[in-house]
Amino acid sequence: MSEIKPNESAPATTEDNGEEKDWAAAKAFFDNLKTHKPRPPKPRYAVTIAVSSRTLFNMVAERKIYEEEGVEKYVAYQLENENEPLKPGAAFPFVKALMNVNSRLRKLYPDSEELFDIVLMTNNHAQVGVRLINSINHYDLTIERFCMTGGQSPIGYLKAYMTNLYLSKDSEKVGEAIEEGIAAATMFMPKTEMQLSDTQLRVAFDGDAVLFSDESEIIVKKHGLDTFFEHEKEV
Amino acid sequence: MVSTIQNTDVKQKDADHAVVVAITSHAAFESGADDGDAVYREGVAFPLLQALQKVNERLLEENPAESLLFDVILITTDSQQQQQSSRVISSTRHYGLEVSRFCFSSEEDFIESLQKNNVKLFLTTDTNEVTQASQTGVVSVLLDQQTAVCSSEQLRVMFCGDAVIRPDTGPMPLTRQAAQSFSTQLGEMRQKFGMFDSPLSFILVTSHGGRESCRGALQMLRSRGVSVDEAYCLAGAPRGPMLSLVQPHFLLRDGYSSLEE
Predict the structure, then answer these.
(1) Which residue range is the domain that position B216 belongs to?
(2) B214 contacts in A (CB within 8 Å)?
(3) Which residue in B228, B235, B237 is closest to A127 by CB distance?
(4) Helix axes A126-139 and B211-223, enclosed angle (nearest 10)
(5) Which of A37, A127, A157 comes nearest B242 by C-beta?
(6) Same domain, B30 and B86
(7) Touching check for B245 and chain A: CB below 8 Å?
(8) Where is this region: Disordered (chain A) (predicted)?
(9) Domain's final residue, options B149, B184, B200
(10) In whole angstroms, what is the distance from residue A125 CA to residue A123 CA?
(11) Is position A198 annotated as part of the catalytic site?
(12) For chain B, what is the domain count?
């Protein structure tokens, strides 16, 4: 099967041997679990999607406390409500659809590591992590990898977790991720109720900029549609 | 033969409440082949020493009468450095290091220094010393080149959240008890600071297990008074890139076992 991350060269160093040992230990750990949870795929071959806590779950009320009363009150509130599962956020249906794709892939290719891997990437304090994990358990999401930086920007960690796509509510963070060369998108809750499938992953490609050069897109943004049509005539 | 000399430049700590940390002079200073009588160069433990000092500074800022402080002592086991005991002392003073006592002993009886001084954490660059000290139940950490690039502004202590799969490879029960009480003392120190801008940070890394191991570890540490700040759960993902970002000063191994099932 082909490698999804072609920039990773073939393992040969002692660091890679350590990597292999960690992987083997994790494999043994998950294979021995009585709960028969599917074990996470090998990051080298997986498509890794990092989601922030606020896109995975609806944390609007909690965010308000953080902004109005400060971080200490925010963390205290999260601790008090630790056993109360959070409500789904904007990326929730997306994550469920990814899980469905994974289970179908696992049935068709039981030995493949080419699966989606979902990582929770947040600058939340680790104490808030208990509520996040409790919520993940409540919905039985297959998320086994976390990065909780306790206040620092998570952007530096995206590469460390071999992230292919980063989803966040914070467009600044998304911009920073893109600067680091990692595909990223700003997720938001649609204002009107949208029926999003959580069994089928539906991907739309922007024909104007994605498949073809974004030269035209830039012209529209800078000068408006008239200039765009003139440019198209010249090209 | 063990001899102890007080550093008169530094205020002695309250023996009943201070947390004694012993560092070998080998770890604190680089001794070159032909340094003469000059001051020693900084060793790999330098940023760590400075971070310990930073914690003390901030603890005293919060409460000038604070007695729960780090009490750093310098242990010299190397016979060559012993002959230059005055150089060890003058180097310490030159850098303004907050070392309260100097202990000079041989390789055979440095353990006596650790016991006499009620050492809670022993830091060295020598693997034999780590093994020997561990066997007597002292929490011992092997420092290396990685330690040299750590922060000098914040003491970063790492805990490992993995299930102990094969208990016989874990640390000795004596050290386990000692590591637990040491981590509780660290937890107490941490409580004196806010969520952010703390000179002390606790990091949890789960290498093999998944979210249940991570959660179990967070809760177990919490019950011991250790409120973890940063958590990285890898579930088999490579550790290297993450560790080079996290840069802990040391890992506290206490054979913590996660109750996954």
Answers:
(1) 155-258
(2) 129, 133, 146
(3) B228
(4) 140
(5) A157
(6) yes
(7) yes
(8) 1-21
(9) B149
(10) 7
(11) no
(12) 2
Give residue B146's Cα distance to chain centre: 14
Q: Residue A133 to residues A85, A146, B83, B128: CA-CA distances in angstroms?
A: 9, 9, 57, 41
For the residues of B165-187, what is the DSSP string, one character each? Answer: SSGGGSPPHHHHHHHHHHHHHHH
Class of domain A14-33+42-203: alpha beta
Say whether B207 and A43 touch across the interface (CB within 8 A).
no
Say yes or no for a CB contact (<8 Å) between A19 and B239: yes
Which pTM does this prediction carry?
A: 0.87
Residues of A in contact with B162 (CB under 8 A): 29
Query: Which residue(s) pair with A145 in the sheet?
Result: A119
Domain CATH number, residue B23: 3.40.50
Among the residues of A39-153, which ranges form H helices?
A: 53-56, 60-69, 71-80, 92-108, 126-139
Q: Which helix (H) or strand (E) covers residue A106, if one does?
A: helix A92-108
Q: Which of A16, A198, A206, A226 is catalytic?
A: A206
Q: Closest Cα of chain A to B152: distance in Å? A: 17
For tokens 């139940």, the residue is: B137
d(CA B89, CA B9): 11
For residues B123 and B28, the answer to whether their CB atoms sit within 8 Å is no
Pull the structure tokens for residue B6. 């007080």
Tens digits of per-residue pLDDT, A148-192? 999 999 999 999 999 999 999 999 999 999 999 999 999 887 766
The span from the CA of A147 to the CA of B111, in Å, is 40
Q: Which of A39-53, B130-144, B156-170 has the lowest mean pLDDT?
A: B156-170
Q: Is B240 on the interface with A (CB under 8 A)?
A: yes
**Residue B147's CB: how many other CB atoms inside 10 A?**
22
Per DSSP, the three-state class of A116 is strand
Distance from CA of A19 to the nearest CA of B (A): 5
Q: Which of B108, B130, B149 is the last residue of a domain?
A: B149
For B237, name the nearest residue in chain A, comparing CA atoms only: A43
One-letter amino acid for residue A87 of the chain: K
Domain ranges of chain A: 14-33+42-203, 204-235
Q: Choose the mutation target among A20, A74, A133, A135 for the interface with B, i.e. most B CBs under 10 Å.
A: A133
H or E segment to which residue B19 belongs: strand B19-24
**Do B94 and B169 belong together in one domain?**
no
ipTM of the complex in this document: 0.88
Q: What DSSP element (H or E) covers B146?
A: helix B145-148
